[in-house]
Amino acid sequence: MDTIRIAPLTPEAFAPFGEVLTPKPAPDRMINRGRCERHHALATVERGGGEAIISIFRSEPVVLPYECDLLERHPLGSQAFMPLGPDMWLSVVAHDVDGVPGRPLAFLVLPGVGLNLRAGVWHGVLTPLDRAADFLVIDREGQGTNLQEVTIPTVRIAR
Q: What pTM does this model have?
């Protein structure tokens, strides 16, 4: 079984897959009479002709090392995940290789940081660490098939 080491999450390392949702080093502007920083347009919601919807996903935790054998993608729209709790979580992604996922990569996502996955990016299922977690999810609802799931050879993900 192939073992994948978890990489630190940086905007540059994650750029091929989407955007990291975290405040910028400095806000774009101050609003609400100077009481609120606005970190504007951190990501784009790709809708592919559908509507952008907001949901809450509740996911059971995984334990490291984690064995991953399922990846999915949403070819018609992006999918953003923002944790609603104080815990770290894991993001598993893979480049597309002729319509199937390539070798997965794993990123450790720090508390309070979200991700926006571009349309068509292969990714693992939600993987909170330590305990169950809720995520605010923004994705696409509409006509067309927007979910593809594939079983992959199991990979072990470890620190």
A: 0.93
